[in-house]
Amino acid sequence: MLSYQVVFNKPFMTYVQYSQLSGVPKRTIMGWVADGRLFIKTKTKGKVRKSHSSI
Fold first, then answer.
1. Can you tell me the distance from the alpha carbon of 44 to that of 3, in angstroms, rounded to the nearest whole number?
2. Residues 14-34, buried b or exposed e (16+ Cβ, 10 A)?
3. Count of C-beta atoms within a 10 Å radius of residue 41
4. What is the pTM of this model?
5. Which residue in 31, 37, 40 sits closest to 13, CA to CA?
6. How far apart (Å, rounded) are the C-alpha atoms in residues 16 and 49?
7. How far is CA 43 from CA 12, 40, 52, in A?
């Protein structure tokens, strides 16, 4: 686990946003996620839209 606690007012953010706010390099953040030391929200697929064909 991290040796310090980082608290942000956003529930979700990108690697770049986290890097800018925490001062930690993006590559390090990606490593933490890969190691399981930093948790990320799993992505879900969006709605499947039906296309209307004009015949």
1. 31
2. ebeebbeeeebeeeebeebee
3. 7
4. 0.61
5. 40
6. 30
7. 12, 9, 27
DSSP run (H or E) holding 51: none
CB 18 within 8 A of CB 29: yes
**Residue 54, token pair as written in the block:** 């004009």
Give dist(CA 40, CA 36) in Å, integer: 9
H helical segments located in the chain: 15-22, 26-35
Inter-axis angle of helices 15-22 and 26-35, to 10 degrees? 110
Q: Which of 50, 52, 2 is nearest to 28 (CA)?
A: 2
pLDDT tens readout for residues 1-55 = 556 666 777 888 899 998 998 889 999 999 999 999 988 888 787 777 776 665 5
